[in-house]
TrEMBL record:
PANTHER family: ADENOSINE 5'-MONOPHOSPHORAMIDASE HNT1, HIT FAMILY PROTEIN 1. A motif (Histidine triad motif) lies at residues 103-107. It comes from the Bacteria. Residues 124-155 are annotated as: Disordered. Gene3D superfamilies: HIT-like. InterPro entries: Histidine_triad_HIT, HIT-like, HIT-like_sf. This is HIT family protein. Residues 11-119 form the HIT domain. Residues 136-150 have a biased composition (Basic and acidic residues).
Length: 170
Protein backbone atom coordinates (compact mmCIF):
# COMPACT_ATOMS: atom_id res chain seq x y z
CA UNK A 1 0.00 0.00 0.00
CA UNK A 2 1.27 3.45 -0.89
CA UNK A 3 1.87 5.61 2.19
CA UNK A 4 0.53 9.11 1.63
CA UNK A 5 1.61 12.36 3.21
CA UNK A 6 -0.89 13.88 5.61
CA UNK A 7 -2.10 17.44 5.08
CA UNK A 8 -5.50 18.38 6.38
CA UNK A 9 -6.83 20.49 4.90
CA UNK A 10 -5.22 19.78 1.54
CA UNK A 11 -2.96 22.69 0.67
CA UNK A 12 -3.60 22.39 -3.08
CA UNK A 13 -7.39 22.30 -2.65
CA UNK A 14 -7.09 25.36 -0.42
CA UNK A 15 -4.56 27.43 -2.39
CA UNK A 16 -4.02 26.41 -6.03
CA UNK A 17 -5.66 28.97 -8.28
CA UNK A 18 -7.08 30.79 -5.25
CA UNK A 19 -3.96 32.55 -3.98
CA UNK A 20 -1.91 34.92 -6.10
CA UNK A 21 1.23 32.81 -5.59
CA UNK A 22 -0.52 29.94 -7.43
CA UNK A 23 -1.53 31.92 -10.53
CA UNK A 24 -3.56 29.98 -13.08
CA UNK A 25 -1.89 29.62 -16.46
CA UNK A 26 -4.48 27.37 -18.09
CA UNK A 27 -7.49 25.29 -17.14
CA UNK A 28 -9.69 22.51 -18.43
CA UNK A 29 -12.70 20.61 -17.14
CA UNK A 30 -10.44 18.30 -15.08
CA UNK A 31 -7.26 20.34 -14.51
CA UNK A 32 -5.72 23.60 -13.45
CA UNK A 33 -2.24 24.47 -14.69
CA UNK A 34 -0.57 26.83 -12.24
CA UNK A 35 2.78 28.49 -11.70
CA UNK A 36 4.72 26.71 -8.97
CA UNK A 37 5.41 29.20 -6.15
CA UNK A 38 8.80 27.52 -5.70
CA UNK A 39 10.69 28.33 -8.88
CA UNK A 40 13.44 25.70 -8.72
CA UNK A 41 13.66 26.50 -12.43
CA UNK A 42 12.20 29.69 -13.91
CA UNK A 43 8.85 28.79 -15.42
CA UNK A 44 8.21 25.67 -13.36
CA UNK A 45 4.51 24.77 -13.55
CA UNK A 46 2.17 22.16 -12.10
CA UNK A 47 -0.88 20.53 -13.63
CA UNK A 48 -3.30 19.84 -10.78
CA UNK A 49 -6.48 17.82 -10.83
CA UNK A 50 -9.61 19.73 -9.89
CA UNK A 51 -10.90 16.67 -8.07
CA UNK A 52 -9.05 15.84 -4.87
CA UNK A 53 -7.26 12.57 -5.56
CA UNK A 54 -3.92 11.55 -4.10
CA UNK A 55 -2.06 9.56 -6.74
CA UNK A 56 -1.89 8.53 -10.36
CA UNK A 57 -3.66 5.31 -9.37
CA UNK A 58 -6.71 7.31 -8.24
CA UNK A 59 -7.26 9.21 -11.51
CA UNK A 60 -10.12 8.46 -13.85
CA UNK A 61 -9.31 7.79 -17.51
CA UNK A 62 -10.66 11.25 -18.37
CA UNK A 63 -8.41 12.87 -15.76
CA UNK A 64 -5.36 10.96 -17.03
CA UNK A 65 -6.00 12.19 -20.54
CA UNK A 66 -6.66 15.76 -19.37
CA UNK A 67 -3.45 15.85 -17.30
CA UNK A 68 -1.27 14.75 -20.21
CA UNK A 69 -2.96 17.11 -22.67
CA UNK A 70 -2.53 20.00 -20.21
CA UNK A 71 1.11 19.05 -19.58
CA UNK A 72 1.85 18.97 -23.31
CA UNK A 73 0.08 22.30 -23.80
CA UNK A 74 2.10 24.07 -21.08
CA UNK A 75 5.31 22.36 -22.25
CA UNK A 76 4.74 23.87 -25.70
CA UNK A 77 4.29 27.29 -24.08
CA UNK A 78 7.46 26.82 -22.02
CA UNK A 79 9.45 25.97 -25.14
CA UNK A 80 8.13 29.10 -26.86
CA UNK A 81 8.80 31.23 -23.79
CA UNK A 82 12.21 30.03 -22.60
CA UNK A 83 13.75 27.93 -25.40
CA UNK A 84 14.91 25.41 -22.77
CA UNK A 85 17.46 22.66 -23.35
CA UNK A 86 14.90 20.16 -22.09
CA UNK A 87 11.54 19.73 -20.39
CA UNK A 88 11.42 17.72 -17.17
CA UNK A 89 8.09 16.16 -16.21
CA UNK A 90 7.55 14.25 -13.01
CA UNK A 91 4.91 13.19 -10.53
CA UNK A 92 5.34 11.51 -7.14
CA UNK A 93 3.11 8.82 -5.65
CA UNK A 94 3.53 8.31 -1.91
CA UNK A 95 5.98 9.56 0.69
CA UNK A 96 8.62 7.05 -0.42
CA UNK A 97 8.70 8.78 -3.81
CA UNK A 98 8.96 12.25 -2.27
CA UNK A 99 5.26 13.18 -2.45
CA UNK A 100 4.64 15.99 0.04
CA UNK A 101 1.00 16.86 -0.70
CA UNK A 102 -1.76 14.22 -0.91
CA UNK A 103 -3.22 15.78 -4.07
CA UNK A 104 -2.23 14.70 -7.58
CA UNK A 105 -0.01 17.22 -9.36
CA UNK A 106 2.24 16.81 -12.38
CA UNK A 107 5.32 19.02 -12.68
CA UNK A 108 6.35 20.52 -16.04
CA UNK A 109 9.72 22.20 -15.81
CA UNK A 110 11.90 23.93 -18.43
CA UNK A 111 15.54 22.93 -17.84
CA UNK A 112 18.52 25.17 -18.56
CA UNK A 113 22.26 25.00 -18.11
CA UNK A 114 23.37 25.83 -14.60
CA UNK A 115 20.57 24.01 -12.81
CA UNK A 116 21.48 22.84 -9.34
CA UNK A 117 18.93 20.03 -9.43
CA UNK A 118 21.22 17.38 -10.82
CA UNK A 119 19.30 14.60 -12.55
CA UNK A 120 15.61 14.32 -11.78
CA UNK A 121 13.27 16.19 -9.48
CA UNK A 122 14.65 18.35 -6.66
CA UNK A 123 13.89 15.99 -3.81
CA UNK A 124 15.96 13.27 -5.47
CA UNK A 125 18.80 15.62 -6.33
CA UNK A 126 19.52 16.13 -2.63
CA UNK A 127 20.78 12.55 -2.43
CA UNK A 128 24.22 11.42 -3.60
CA UNK A 129 24.02 10.22 -7.20
CA UNK A 130 20.44 11.56 -7.51
CA UNK A 131 19.07 8.46 -5.83
CA UNK A 132 18.46 7.11 -2.37
CA UNK A 133 18.86 3.92 -0.42
CA UNK A 134 16.11 1.40 -1.15
CA UNK A 135 13.17 1.58 1.24
CA UNK A 136 13.87 5.00 2.71
CA UNK A 137 11.45 7.92 2.52
CA UNK A 138 12.38 11.33 1.19
CA UNK A 139 14.71 13.08 3.63
CA UNK A 140 13.52 16.68 3.90
CA UNK A 141 16.84 17.86 5.37
CA UNK A 142 17.76 20.99 3.48
CA UNK A 143 14.29 21.44 1.93
CA UNK A 144 13.61 24.64 3.87
CA UNK A 145 16.88 26.21 2.68
CA UNK A 146 16.22 25.15 -0.91
CA UNK A 147 12.67 26.51 -0.80
CA UNK A 148 13.85 29.80 0.67
CA UNK A 149 16.39 30.14 -2.14
CA UNK A 150 13.72 29.66 -4.83
CA UNK A 151 11.08 32.01 -3.38
CA UNK A 152 10.19 34.83 -5.72
CA UNK A 153 7.78 37.69 -5.24
CA UNK A 154 4.09 37.39 -6.03
CA UNK A 155 4.62 40.03 -8.71
CA UNK A 156 7.36 37.95 -10.36
CA UNK A 157 5.17 34.85 -10.24
CA UNK A 158 2.28 36.74 -11.86
CA UNK A 159 4.57 38.11 -14.58
CA UNK A 160 5.98 34.64 -15.24
CA UNK A 161 2.47 33.14 -15.40
CA UNK A 162 1.34 35.92 -17.79
CA UNK A 163 4.34 35.33 -20.06
CA UNK A 164 3.77 31.57 -20.21
CA UNK A 165 0.01 32.08 -20.72
CA UNK A 166 0.73 34.41 -23.66
CA UNK A 167 2.63 31.58 -25.35
CA UNK A 168 0.01 28.82 -24.96
CA UNK A 169 -0.88 27.21 -28.27
CA UNK A 170 -4.18 28.36 -29.79
Amino acid sequence: MIELPIRDPCDLCETAGREDRWAIIDESEHTLTVINPWQFEVGQCCVITRRHVATLLDLSDQECEAVMLSARRVAEALVRTYRPLGILTFQNNGVYSGQETPHFHFHVVPRQKGSDWGIGPPQLATFDGAGRQRGTPHDPTGDAQRRERVQVSTRQLAETADLIRSNLPA
